[in-house]
TrEMBL record:
Keyword Chloroplast belongs to the record: no
Entry's localization field: Cytoplasm
Keywords: Cytoplasm, GTP-binding, Hydrolase, Nucleotide-binding, Ribonucleoprotein, RNA-binding, Signal recognition particle
Subunit structure: Part of the signal recognition particle protein translocation system, which is composed of SRP and FtsY.
Name used for this protein in its record: Signal recognition particle protein
Taxonomic superkingdom: Bacteria
Domain notes: Composed of three domains: the N-terminal N domain, which is responsible for interactions with the ribosome, the central G domain, which binds GTP, and the C-terminal M domain, which binds the RNA and the signal sequence of the RNC.
Gene: ffh
Job of this protein: Involved in targeting and insertion of nascent membrane proteins into the cytoplasmic membrane. Binds to the hydrophobic signal sequence of the ribosome-nascent chain (RNC) as it emerges from the ribosomes. The SRP-RNC complex is then targeted to the cytoplasmic membrane where it interacts with the SRP receptor FtsY.
Residue range from the parent sequence: 1 to 295 of 445
Residues annotated for GTP binding in this entry: 106-113, 189-193
GO molecular function, one term: GTP binding
GO cellular component: signal recognition particle
Family: Belongs to the GTP-binding SRP family. SRP54 subfamily.
């Protein structure tokens, strides 16, 4: 995760620390290199430009240059701005419903079904909350069976959906059942497609209108970089999402999606998937990630 960017930034700042006294030129040169490093990490160009402007405004000035540890000050400014870029102190799930309705949306192959199961396990173990898994992906063959199997593995109940039912029927029946049985949350695996299409979006909009979910989380594959950012943007514009779960982060050495999504969509990354196993889901804390990037 962020390995390449982290290595580059560390080299840049090591050089900066090598100057006892910092001039404006030193800082400008370092920030130019930071810009290149971010672009190479596949961060959205506009996001990089605005980021650098904010850093520059704070880093260039007497206060930083006259301080006893000027390079440390610059690094702190970059760390703080990276944190802000990714969403500040982190965003919690809204679990105020009875049950809380959490819809996972996204394209096929993004990791939606797996993430439903991971999230149910997470809520059970970290929050002591009971979840009802709802397989409403009637589009991808075997998605229903996949969720049923994952639920079995975890000892988490899965609504017995039939492929002959519509997603709306599945969700309404599951919600009634969840209310009756007193679950804390229902987690809905919605149908994706290979590409964004109108039919999928309409189906999701209808579900949203009818169910009024507390959370609509877009599941996107971090390895696809700026494609993931564009997908998040489109889903947010068409449907209105409450956050993003970025999957396959452990295989993404660049980190461009994670660094761009909040700035482009204004919606926070709430979790990241870091492996195929069902415990490989982590809460996304921008401040910790920024510290990790800067070593
Ligand atoms: P869906 O079509 O969106 O429901 O996708 P699936 O849940 O079936 O996931 C597609 C593939 O991605 C599966 O092989 C998952 O095991 C894998 N996957 C999901 N999340 C992660 C992750 O965080 N890391 C890795 N490496 N693989 C993941």
């Amino acid at each position: 995760m962020f390995d390449n960017l982290s290595e580059k930034l560390n080299t840049i700042f090591k050089k900066l620390k090598g100057h006892g006294h910092l001039t404006e030129e030193h800082i400008n040169k370092a920030l130019k290199e930071v810009k290149l490093a971010l672009l190479e990490a596949d961060v959205n160009y506009k996001v990089v430009k605005e980021f650098l402007n904010r850093v520059k405004e704070k880093a260039i000035g007497q206060e930083v240059m006259r301080s006893l540890t000027p390079a440390q000050q610059v690094i702190k400014i970059v760390r703080d701005e990276l944190t802000t870029l990714m969403g500040g102190s982190g965003a919690e799930l809204n679990l105020k419903g009875m049950p809380s309705i959490i819809m996972l949306v996204g394209l096929q192959g993004s990791g939606k079904t797996t993430t439903c199961a991971k999230l149910a396990k997470f809520l059970k173990e970290k929050g002591g909350k009971s979840s009802y898994l709802v397989p409403a992906d009637t589009y991808r063959p075997a998605a229903i069976e996949q969720l049923q199997k994952l639920g079995q593995q975890l000892g988490i109940e899965v609504f017995p959906a039939q492929n002959s039912q519509t997603p709306m029927e599945i969700c309404i029946n599951a919600l009634t059942e969840a209310r009756r049985r007193g679950y804390d949350a229902i987690i809905i695996d919605t149908a994706g497609r290979l590409h964004i299409d109108e039919k999928m979006m309409d189906e999701l909009k209808q579900l949203k209108e009818r169910l009024m979910p507390q959370e609509i989380l877009l599941v996107a594959d971090a390895m696809t970089g700026q494609d993931a950012v564009n997908i998040a943007k489109t889903f947010n514009q068409a449907l209105g999402i409450t956050g993003v779960i970025l999957t396959k982060m452990e295989g993404d050495a660049r980190g461009g999606a994670a660094l761009s999504i909040k700035a482009v969509t204004q919606k926070p990354i709430k979790f990241v998937g870091v492996g195929e196993k069902l415990n490989a889901l982590e809460v996304f804390y921008p401040d910790r990630v920024a510290s990790r990037i800067l070593g």
